[in-house]
Structures are given as structure tokens and as C-alpha cells.
Amino acid sequence: MLDEYFYEIIAVATLVGGGLFLAGLRNPIVFFYAGLFGTAILKTPELPIVREKFTIVELCLLCLWMCWPLLLKGRLPSKATGLVYLWGGAFCIICLSSSLIAISTAPPRMVTAKMAAWSLLEAVNYCYGVAILWTCVQVLDTWQRWIGAIVAWVGGMAVASFVGAAAVVGIAPGWAREETGRICSTLRNENQVPSMILPLLVVVLMIAVRRGLPIRYRGLALAIFVAALLAAIGTGSRTAALMIGLSGAGVVWILHTAIQSKWTVYRFQLFYLAVGFAGVVVSYFAIAWSQYDGNYSLMSTPSWQRPAVLLIEWFDGRRELDGTRPKQITNAMEYFWQSPILGTGPKFGPAFAATGGEVHNTYFSLLLETGFVGLGAFLALVWLAAYLSFDAARKCRYPWYGILGRALLVGLFLICLYNGTMLGLRQRNIWFLMGMLLAFSDLVAAGAEPESTLPRQIPKGMRAIFVDENSRQGKEVVSSQ
Asked: What is the pLDDT at residue 51?
């Protein structure tokens, strides 16, 4: 369907790409922001070997790495960098070793040239994720850059959310939907949408109630929040519905733990929004169920009804919540014990364990294909990001930055939940998010202070997003546990 707009896409890409390249040569951090923004736009042509895996994200990061000497002028002391080298390096070595061993020892009928290439590509893809994490820790060395990364992700989230919301109401082009009617927006498939837009759901809600921010920006943030909800529900994903519900618990946790949040956000507005949101969720389930014809079908049941129908029928005991994933996990665990240390090798797992396709669970997939050492190294990275950022949020002297750090931590929990229902390590979002959290912990540990001036490209009205005015007035605030 995108072929119909081939020349228009080429023209726009050329103009935007040329401007981006010139801006990036003057200030290479632009390439990082563009790459993060580009995680929302994954509809790209399939290439040999790498297939659809080479996107605008990779192009921007390659440009960033080529400009590396121009980017780093002075680094803050980093507690996270050594840990990333240790556990990230271990994870990369394990994935590559497991792949090479599998290629060398698997039965000849399985080791075709295509399978060997896919296995190595999968291992390299995991290493690439670690490289993204390391890059985040290196380049996000000021509060301004860190907030800039959040804004870049929110920008991509806005694009995917508004296109997805337009598809829900039927005014988006056909490529924003899959054949089943489920919303894929600007991403390649519907399952990628929740992992891109929902980790920052709480962030945009906090921006919508940020004190000192002009109402036009707060209104835009609220519009992004609503569009993200519509797009996520339009994917027909039960995981997305659960992620949305747990986001509410995340908001409660943030307001409970950030002592001086009343100086930073309009708490009453947030309360009313939360009540309204709860009412909308209840109304959604009621409307979806009332419109349901009683005959569920992937092709005929509207995608927006799907999460409510499946969850209600599961609660009533009329259907299993999932018939595929439990069987895949069972098969994976039965075969895991035959190669528990380094696993079967990336991409070889489904063939050996007869799971009927890739295991739709990141953790059990890693356990099957890279063994307990591969899974252990990955979980160590997740734990480091969660623990260090949680500790930093408690110690952060700047209430607004502390709230954003907590909001990203909620996002990490949500994306870890998502990875429990999908093999999500090929997607870049979890690596970017872990890197941003580790960068946050470095900034707090180093005692970094907010910049007093902003680049002229940033509108003055957005100052409240980038600078914590409360802290600059001399209010030293340390968040509680």
C-alpha cells in the first residue's frame, strides 16, 4: 500500500534527510534525537539479509557514531558505564558464542546458509541493543540532553498515536491497519505499537499537569495521552489494555513518593484526570461488551472491541486467555534442559523445541536460545537500570526531574510486562529506555545542575519541561522512599 506514495515518500525523505544531516553536522546530538524519534516510524522496505531491520533509527545512529569525536566534550563521572561494559559485554559474548556453537554443531539439515545468517543477525541485533544502551549513557550527560531525549520520544509517540487514533475513527490511510483491522499505525505490525507509545504514557500525563507550562503545551500533551489510549486499544492487544491499567497505579506511586510534587504539578487537575480516565475505562468495557455480537472472530470482531471481549469472556470462564503462549513456553522449557548453559543458539530455538514459531515471551525465548547465562546477563542489565534509577529518584534534589525519572521507571515496568507476552528485544525501545534511566542515575550521582539557558531552537514556553524552576529558587528537595 505504501508503494502508491513511493515518489512522495522519496521527495519528503530527501528534504527531511538533507536538513537533518546538515543540522546533525553542526550538533551531532540531533542524530540521537532523530533516531529516538524514528522508533515510531518503522515502515521501511525489506532489504537482503537484514530484511526490515534497517530503519531510520540505524541510519541516524550510524551518523551519530561517525560524529562521535565532535559529540563528547567532557564526560560526567559515570557509575553506569562500567556496569554496562560488564553485563552488556557478557550478554553480547554469550549471544554470539551461542549462535556460533549452534551453527557449528547443529544437524546439517538445520544449518542452511539462510538459517546461519539469521542466527548471526539475531545475535548481532541483541548486541546492537546493548550498543544503544551504552550510547544513551554516554551522550545524555546533561539534564538538557536527557530531557531532550524524552521530548524526542514523545514526538515519535505523538506521530504514532495520532495516526493510530485516526485509523480507529476511519480517517487514516489503509497502511495504518493490518488485514485483520488491527491498528499498526506507522509501525510494521500492531504488536509494536504498545511498546513504543505506552512506556511514556505517564510522562505525557505529567507534562499535561506541569506547573509553569503554558496551557497550549499542556493541552497538546493531554491530546497525545488520549490519542495514545485510542491507538493502543485499536491494536486489539490485551497486553496494551493491561499496560494502560497499570499506568494508573504508576501515577499513584509517583504522587505518593514525590514529596514536593505539589510544587511541580497541578495535583487536583491530575486527580480529576485520573477519575475521568477511570470512568472512560469502565465506559469502554461497557460499550465494547454491549456492541459485541457474541461471535468472536479475529477477522470480523472490531479490533477496538477485542481486548474487552477477550478479557470479559476469560473472566467469565468462557475461554482461555491465551492458548498459544503457554504451549510455546512448555515446549521451550522441556527442551531447555538439553542445553541449559548456552541454549540452542538465537533463531534455532523454535526448530529444536517445536514451538510452532518464535516464543512469544522474551524471557523464555532467551532461556531457550541463550541458556540461563544469557537470560541472567540480560536480567542483570534490567535490574541495574531499575535499581540505580529508583535510588536516584529518591535522592534527586530536583522534584520535576525526580518525577520524570519515576515516570520512566514506570515505563520500564510496563515494557518488561510487554516483553512477557512478546519477543521484544529486536525493538529498540527497551534499550533506549534502560539507557535513559541509567543516564538519569549518573546525572543525580554526579550532582549535575540544570542549565540556566536553553538553545534558541527550544521555545521559551517549553522552559518548564527542561528546567526545574522550583530547585532554582533554592528549594532543596529530596524525594522520600
From this structure: 58
How many CB atoms neighbour CB 472 within 10 A?
12
According to DSSP H, which parts of 27-88 are helical? 29-37, 56-66, 68-71, 80-83
Alpha carbon of residue 462 to chain centroid:
24
What is the dihedral angle through the alpha carbons of 62, 66, 69, 70, rounded to the nearest 10 degrees? -80
What are the cell numbers at 446?
Answer: 554526579
Contact 337, 320 (CB under 8 A): no
What's this model's pTM, rounded to 2 decimal places?
0.90
**Which runs of consecutive H residues, i.e. helices, occur in 299-398?**
306-315, 325-336, 349-353, 362-395
Report the alpha-carbon distance of residue 83 to residue 442 in Å, rounded: 12
Rounded to the nearest 10 degrees, what angle do helices 238-257 and 306-315 cross at? 90
Cell (9 digits) for 101: 556453537
Phi, psi of 353 (to 5 degrees): -90, -5
Which is nearest to 403 in space by CA: 213, 240, 194?
Answer: 213
Spatial CA neighbour of 322 closest among 247, 239, 243: 239
CA–CA gap between residue 394 and residue 481 (Å, rounded): 6
Q: Cell numbers 546533525 label which residue?
A: 24
**What is d(CA 181, CA 185) in angstroms, rounded to the nearest whole number?**
11
Residues in the chain, overall count = 481
Rounded CA-CA distance 345/96 in Å is 8
Q: Three-class SS string for 173-196?
A: CHHHECCCCCECCCCCCCCHHHHH
Q: How far is CA 111 from the centre of its chain?
A: 33
Q: What is the Cα Rg of the chain in Å?
A: 22
Give, in order, the Cα–Cα distances in Å from 74 to each of 35, 83, 129, 141: 23, 20, 25, 9
DSSP string, 75-128: PPP-SHHHHIIIIIHHHHHHHHHHHHHHHHHS-TTT--HHHHHHHHHHHHHHHH
Helix axes 6-26, 29-37, angle to 10 degrees: 150
52 pLDDT higher than 70: no
pLDDT tens, position by position, 382-409: 999 999 999 999 999 899 999 999 999 9
CA 125 to chain centre: 16
C-alpha distances out from residue 275 to 79, 270, 272, 286, Å:
40, 9, 5, 17
φ, ψ dihedrals at 4, nearest 5°: -65, -25
CA–CA distance, 107 with 84 (Å, rounded to integer)? 35
Q: What is the pLDDT of residues 413-460, one digit of tens each?
A: 999 999 998 888 888 999 999 999 999 999 999 988 888 778 877 888
